[in-house]
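>> Question from a student workshop board

For tomorrow's exercise we were told to take the sequence and the ligand below, predict the bound structure, and bring the output to class. My setup keeps failing. Could a helper post the expected result so I can at least see what it should look like? The ligand is 1,6-di-O-phosphono-beta-D-fructofuranose.
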Amino acid sequence: MAYQDAVEKLLDHPVTRQMTLDVNAETMERQIFAPRRISVFDTGFTKIADQAQYRFADNFEAKRLLPDIIDNCVQKVVTRPDMTTREKKAFCKPRRIGVVFSGGPAPGGHTVIAGLFDAIKANHPDSRLYGFILGSDGLLESSYVELTEKRVDTFRNMGGFSMIKTGRTKIDTPEKMDQALKTCQSLNLEGVVIIGGDDSNTNAAFLAQHFKSAGVHVIGVPKTIDGDIQVKSDDGTCLLAVPFGFHSAARSFAQNISHLASDAASDVKYWHVCKVMGRVASHLTLEAALQTHPNLAFIGEELAAYTDDERLKKAKESGETDFTAFGITLRHLSRVICDAIVRRAAFGKNYGVMIIPEGILEFINEIQIFIIKLNKIIADFNAIHDLDFHRSFPTLNEKLDYLRRISQGMMETYPFPIWNLRDDELFNQLPDFFQAGLLVERDFHGNFQFSQVRTEKVIMDMVKEYLGALKEQGRYKIGINKSYYQSFMRSRDLDPDRYASALFADPKTVYLLVKPGIMSLKTLKQALINAELLESDQDVPGPVKEIFRRSEPDFKIQTHFYGYDGRGSDPTAFDCHYTYNLGMTAFHLIAHGHTGQMAAIKNLEQPFENWEPIGIPIARLMHLEERKGRLELVMEKSLVDLSSHAFQVFKKMRDTWLGAEPGGDHFRKPGPVRCDSRSAEDRPITLTLNAIDLSPSRDQPS
Ligand code: FBP
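>> Workshop helper replied:
Here is what the output should look like for this input. Compare the format with yours to find the bug.
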């Protein structure tokens, strides 16, 4: 058969056809997977019950800027079995709703749309759902597509936001808001659902305020893998335990990290350094750590709370306050990492897995100060010159030069230089790539773009340098297993006990550490001569040299960044159930005429039967925050609570997980991300731990 014909035949073969389809069995399984529906939504007839018992602190700026939605209260979607036929008819009418993704993707977004679509179509088959393309740009440019059953079905339970794509454009001026309203009105929309993170929900609140008089309702949906949208009322009731996407992303990172743990424990030569996404808060790192039990993991919030007690004590004794004793420095952090590495190595484990949160720099004093100062300098430049700092100074050298001029008092803008000579000196000690990272352009919302800074490199370069010094001092050694040492020496006809006390600091331990003073073949020889095991003209026996060689560490790392992969992961079963019901909740809030609310599910930490669809007033979640050098009203992010059960468990377990002891490691394998519950636990571990009730009444046997 001619070559061309053979290829044609191969391509035409049913097996080849099957194997080259864009969808596989897993995808098809996802597309037909039916998430559970909260029973409230079974009949489709609901009403909204105000839950005025949940209160929030007053914020005067929010009152001033969002007067028409500030008095919203928490609402619960409840069934309404007693709806009359007339009421049913009025409720079930053709409706037109728009939906937009905003910010970074998060697994489950398509399932929110599926829930919204199913709810609107169940309400009336002639209803229409429109998806705005590329985030807020779609709203501003009237770029949209009608979401048909076929389109929605293709994306059910699939990861990413590719159905309508997303963007980070901020609708931040009255002109842009008018433009967005015009788009909604031209489509005759009853409401818009904004699926986004803290900044997008902030935007949703401002749009709700702006659209209020026009009767277009705006509902937010809490999305972000970062996990930092969590809501508690003033009395501590948890109204929203976690945004959607967090569980899936954390599971996806955890799966990869657990694979690295297998590799590390097999090849025993690398430290795998994993930077895990999360712009500021370390929720993802905490969850990934609980999922995988890494040897080391850092929680940014804990580093910020660090105090150097010894320094404080000393200062107190001399009647002073040492402000430098609060918070951790990069240098100190690198020392903590080195200490852990050295401790593991002493038990023969010169390898491991560590997790560093992407936003760690936010919690390191000296860097945080740089970030705040640079934000202010860039914002002032833009405002005063009506130019863009980054376009005006495109290269790093030009930016540094501008900073230098400020520090030397050459800029009249700063009579009391915000950037002083000391800042300039310290900043110039940082490696170029890190300087460039700290000067990177802020995003639309004024956030520092941590994902673009090679944080792990900065930290690990310092670690390598310090480990080098420890090695030279003989304080970084690989412990040699005693039974291995004994059989190795015996197999080479040498008496292990004869050499042990000359070689090792303590010959009785299970892992033998070569004496710190033995740092080279020369010092090894001298130690044997001193112990009268060798004459000065004799050579060190080969097996002894070999043991010494094995005790000398070579620190090798592999760095990994887990972020975009997890954002694009398919949703877990938890996120599928969660998001489907969020979509339904958003529909019912709009259908009952509410605006400025964020759709949420209460009791996520409890069994599904207890889940409650609610609306949370976004305006009540706001606070003032520095953005691009100015204070702005934005939704407050939730950081890791250091008193939470999840953090406390992690804190207690981490020394065990470090594995600085004889024996194996404690790595945990979370397994693959699936949309059914075949392998995954049914909700994030952090949620499960935080929900444990330790009150005495719970201890009684039932
Ligand atoms: P959202 O807050 O929009 O969900 O995005 C979160 C995030 O994924 C962060 O974890 C990360 O730092 C950032 O987005 C990356 O942003 P970009 O997509 O611009 O690279």
